[in-house]
Amino acid sequence: MKKSFKKSILALAVAMVSTVAFAQDARSIVDAALNIKKPAYNHSIIEMDLINKAGNIEEHRIIDELGRYNEKTDTSDVVMNFKVSNNKSNQGIKFLQMENKGKDDDKWIYMPSLKTTRRVNSSEGSKSFTGTDASYDDMSTRELDDDTHELLAEENKNGYDCWKIKSTPTAATVAKAQYQYRIQWIDKKTNVPVYAEMYDKKDGSLLKVLTVDSLENIQGYTITTSTTLKNVKSGHSTRIAAQKNPKSPNGYNIILDKPIPDNVFTQNYLNTAK
Question: pLDDT for 206-250, tens place per residue?
Fold first, then answer.
């Protein structure tokens, strides 16, 4: 009896250690995904398609996107200028997001119909970003410890050898979290999440699916050149792709590590584009 009891305790101890290691591995994997090598500057021309349930493109946009990354603060800023849209009310929209560590990102949007720039409040996080399937909160990256991370499996996803990880908001962040939990498939080779599922906070059902359609190595950086975000409940989807350019050395209208003036990342730029 004593021998059996001792063996059970040993088995329990091994199981506990294994669980801790498993959880730590998941956190480390997500940490690596958040810390992939990033260019200091990124200037890209983006083509965005809003696609209805029937699979038809209802709006086509061309967006001038400028980004910068500060390695010291580990923060990124981005500006989007909607240069072309077959929906004329959306042409000329400009959006600025400035990442903050430990608090909500700062977001501003310029609406040409109103000829004014306004701040996007954190209470608007669940609202659609300019009619896309992404919300304003989707535009921000969650901090590593905003969630607990569980390694569910190691499996192939769309041709990528992946870790399958479930990320669930912590007690401290659940109130502001947009989803009940997320499952992402992180490519072992590049540490890039190549597929993700987001589950509805209300009932736990699958709400959105993000698919990376193509990855490219450009100047030593792993760049996502095409993604599709689909709302599985409405059937609507948003496809975003870097504009191809056969005359460019990398095959795309993507310029990396060429400095972008600081004034671009300001509210004044949204108003004047200068």
Answer: 999 999 999 999 999 999 999 999 999 999 999 999 999 999 999
Residue-level pLDDT at 182: 98
User: Of 150, 212, 153, 154, whose CA–CA distance to 181 is shortest?
Assistant: 150
Q: Which candidate, 96, 62, 94, 76, places its Cα nearest to that of 241?
A: 62
Residue 85 in tokens: 């849209």
Separation between Cα atoms, residue 26 and residue 30, nearest integer Å: 6
Q: What is the C-alpha to C-alpha distance for residues 56 and 47, in angstroms, rounded to an integer?
A: 16
CA dihedral angle for residue 245, residue 211, residue 69, residue 199, rounded to 10 degrees = 160
And the tokens for 160?
Answer: 């990528």
Is the model's pLDDT at 19 over the cut of 50? no
Domains of the chain: 33-91+121-257 (2.50.20.10)
Read off the pLDDT of each residue in 41-54 and give the average, rounded to a whole number.
Answer: 98
Contact by Cβ (8 Å): 239, 46: no
Would you state the structure tokens that stand for residue 19, as one six-digit string?
């669980």
CA distance 119 to 122: 9
Q: What is the Cα gyration radius of the chain? A: 21
